[in-house]
Specification:
By secondary structure, the chain is an all-alpha fold. Helix content is 68%, strand content 0%.
Length: 102
């Protein structure tokens, strides 16, 4: 497979995103209990996600499903991979900013 090394890095980053999403969603629960965090979705449609959630985990799950589809595909177009990596980067950056905003 031509993207073996890239797929390994993506898998590692998805695992990081999953762990950070769990922590961030717990923090969002705390903020909601305190009367904050009244938003409908974390990401907008123009950021490439089809999911609309006020939690991080559904976005990670969307990326995992897309990644599984790419791994099972006989051919992955470079544009598809590039769009996926941009969404993953957006998610990881947002998680990092949220983590640092304590």
């Amino acid at each position: 497979m031509p993207y073996t090394n890239v797929f390994l890095q993506i898998k590692e980053n998805l695992q990081i995103a999953y762990r950070q999403a769990i922590d961030s969603d717990a923090r969002l629960d705390e903020l909601r209990k305190a009367g904050h965090g009244k938003f409908v979705a974390i990401f907008t449609e123009d950021q490439g996600f089809t999911e609309k959630s006020n939690r991080f985990l559904p976005y990670v799950q969307e990326l995992v499903a897309e990644f599984d589809a790419m791994q099972n595909s006989a051919h992955v177009a470079p544009e598809t991979l590039e769009a996926f990596v941009k969404k993953l980067a957006t998610l990881l950056q947002t998680l990092q900013v949220f983590k640092l905003s304590k």
